Amino acid sequence: MPTHEDMVAAVKAYVDAFAQENLNAIVNLYADDATVEDPVGSPLHSGAEAIRAFYAKAVEMRAKLTLNGPVRTAGNTAAFAFTVDVPNEGAVLQIDVIDTFRFDERGRVSRMRAYWGPHNVRQGGST
Amino acid sequence: MPTHEDMVAAVKAYVDAFAQENLNAIVNLYADDATVEDPVGSPLHSGAEAIRAFYAKAVEMRAKLTLNGPVRTAGNTAAFAFTVDVPNEGAVLQIDVIDTFRFDERGRVSRMRAYWGPHNVRQGGST
After folding, report:
1. Which of A6, A29, A110, A120 could bridge to A2 as Cys pair (CB 3.0-4.6 Å)?
2. Which of A39, A79, A96 sits opposite B115 (nearest CB)?
3. Strand partners, B100
């Protein structure tokens, strides 16, 4: 099973992949049969193809992630708070999110859930 | 169903109840048939009696909670990052945690999950 350090490294790789607009690096963190629920309560993106399509949009929107505080890990799951900056017509939308990543035995993410809603979206500064 | 504001108020009431060492105020946030999984992966505390016994220990240890950033809400679930301070022989243990609260239709917490592990515990300053 992945260690705390493995899980923290995966979270940091996820943040870095957005910074680099590297879609492959994001998708490669996931198991082939993974599910993504973003936001929690919405339909699942299941499997590599659906997950790639979901993240392709986020990369295209130039979403950038900033971690808020340390990654928490419990067993094979990591939870982490972050802010997403999305450029929006000369300004920036900021979205406060908490994600959970459940990992499989090989250290790939098997289940992602993103906790955020309309009240967590705000207008940030100008770019 | 509870609104964003209802869920944020419940989280703040939870933090305040620890500050006031008010066990009843903590337990009253929960539905009678709620479950508490703290940390994630450990056996569930199921139902009012087990939940009361679990929190009685935390209150006895004088655990105090400080929120780290805004409460995230998705549908009927809130997620929030916080630090717990626990007095420990003249010093303070600090534990970084992320909790999720799922709410029932009446706005009571029906399921709580706490994400933290040994790597999220550190020695803080002296009291």
Report:
1. A6
2. A79
3. B79, B113
Q: Cα B114 to the chain's mean position, in Å? A: 7
Cβ pair B72:A41 closer than 8 A: no
d(CA B85, CA A96): 24
Give the closest of B4, B78, B115 to A72, CB-based.
B115
Give the confidence band of A127 by pLDDT, cuts at 50, 70, 90.
low
Q: What percent of chain B has pLDDT over 90?
A: 94
Residue A73 near residue B115 (C-beta atoms within 8 A): yes
Q: Which residues pair with B121 in a beta bridge?
A: B95
- ipTM for the complex shown: 0.95
Angle CA(A86)–CA(A87)–CA(A93) in degrees, nearest 5? Answer: 55
How far is B43 from chain A, CA to nearest CA, in Å? 12
Separation between Cα atoms, residue B115 and residue B120, nearest integer Å:
10
Active site residues of A: 14, 38
The per-residue pLDDT for B126 is 62
